[in-house]
Design brief:
single chain; three-stranded parallel beta sheet; 53% helix; Transcription Regulator spoIIAA; mainly alpha; 10 helices; 233 residues; 2 domains
Amino acid sequence: MRLMVEAGFHMVFVGIETPSADGLAECNKKQNEGRDLVADVKRLERAGLHVQGGFILGFDSDTPSIFQRQIDFIQSSGVVMAMVGLLQAIPGTGLYDRLCREGRITEKLSTGDNVDGTTNIVPLGSAEALRAAYRDLLRRLYAPKPYYQRVRTFLRNYRAPHLKPRVDIGFIWEQGTAFARSIVRLGIIGKERVQYWKLLIWTLFRRPDAISYAVTFAIYGYHFRKICELHIE
């Protein structure tokens, strides 16, 4: 991790998948079993790496509690960019072959852009209930209050690498322009304006060295919510 940061890496994608031990066993994710995954994420953050997390719902072993467990995990670990999707069966895999034998594969394989809750797997329970719970999870994850709470959790853990800052007038101008636009869009007219200002004030007092991250994640959050609203509502 230290060498990655020194080489300029600042973000990693981690396939966390699920906090459920049964789910991890079902997808043969042995490297994630028997670990404190929240502590592992925070260890990456303390090393100077921002974790993008991949999460999956819809395993046969999932119970109704998995939706809240996923939310609790994402919130407590500070995974700001949580990519949650429903399980898909890819042709050529053991999962696909098994579900074909069970008659649980639909004709169409969903793309990665399945925020609306589509999947090519016929679940054991109600498909509509699964889609509804999935959409509700995304609404809750990317609502302003929980999203900004995750940003603060990340900033508490994150330790920025000591790298030579970039000195470029054009870059500085772009950053300043983006900040000004965020003040107008998020801090004045946006429904998240209270959370936006609370984050900036908190960061200025607690982590002034990370103010650029706070602004960047605030802007990200706006776009994440727009995507969720586009596909879910």
